[in-house]
Design a protein that fits this description.
The protein has eleven helices and five strands; from the N terminus they run βββαβαααβααααααα. It has 243 residues and is an alpha/beta fold. Strands 1-2-5-3-4 form a five-stranded mixed beta sheet, covered by helices on one side. Strand 3, helix 1 and strand 4 form a beta-alpha-beta unit. The chain is globular, with a radius of gyration of 17 Å. The N terminus is likely disordered.
């Protein structure tokens, strides 16, 4: 095997979020929402029982991560919706805030992303409510940006906060495989500190997101409505995801 060549393998952080309990005692439907790390052209078909490839894919990566090549799943027939969550278009962070984020780690980063990416989050809700399903959401690792989007969608569906955090933390055991895939494509910071932060999972960080959206006087629904979400999209998403 030549230097830099990556063996054929499967996604390291793919899962269907179905089966979680809501506060009303209902369950989240399987086959509606998937989350994963970044697909590659040479990936084998996932060894899963659910629909693959997904008809609709939301790619949260910025242009510098995506490059010029077509999205791997577009070659299999998926419709790709590029929704960069940070670092592109209006989803930018000032240098002063960036310095604070670097010092504060994920606990500081996630609320910043939640704030600057609010317009994109509303657009993703619209897709989740109406686009052909199942819907796959992914970034590079399927941890930070994906974690924020999935946490928002799950809480909007009424999933209990503890289950939302547990789903986020389920990425932890997958990080060695994720890091290997990212390193193989030169998408991981080379310095030890950068690599360590890229592989960190933090219950406190996703908890900070839940504190913000649940802390709105009208809950997560009110948080989204204040940022331009459609009541119809909220209603359709709940009807679609809750069994």
């Amino acid at each position: 095997m030549e230097t830099g060549e990556i063996p054929t393998e499967r996604l390291a952080n793919l899962r269907d979020i179905g089966g979680m309990a809501t506060t009303s005692g209902q369950l989240i439907r399987a086959g509606v929402l998937y989350r994963s790390d970044m697909p590659r052209v040479d990936d084998e078909r996932p060894d899963v029982s659910f629909t693959w490839p997904p008809p609709t894919v939301v790619d949260l990566r910025a242009s510098m991560e995506r490059g010029d090549a077509p999205h791997p799943l577009s070659l299999l027939g998926s419709e790709i919706h590029v929704k960069p969550l940070i670092g592109e278009g209006g989803n930018t962070v000032s240098e002063s805030v960036t310095a604070e984020v670097r010092a504060g780690g994920l606990r500081m980063l996630y609320p910043v992303i939640l704030d600057v990416a609010a317009p994109s989050l509303v657009e993703i809700l619209d897709l989740a409510a109406e686009a052909p399903g199942p819907l796959l959401v992914h970034c590079a690792a399927g941890k930070d940006r994906t974690g924020i989007v999935v946490a928002l969608l799950l809480r909007l569906a009424g999933v209990v906060p503890e289950a939302v955090v547990a789903d986020y933390m389920a990425t932890g055991p997958n990080m060695p495989g994720i890091v290997r895939r990212l390193r193989g494509q030169a998408l991981l910071p080379g310095a030890r500190t950068g690599e360590r932060r890229a592989s960190e999972v933090s219950a406190d960080a996703v908890g900070a997101v839940l504190e913000i959206i649940d802390g709105h006087p009208a809950g997560v629904e009110g948080w989204l409505l204040d940022r331009g979400a459609s009541p119809d999209s909220i209603r359709h998403w709940r009807k679609r995801i809750v069994d």
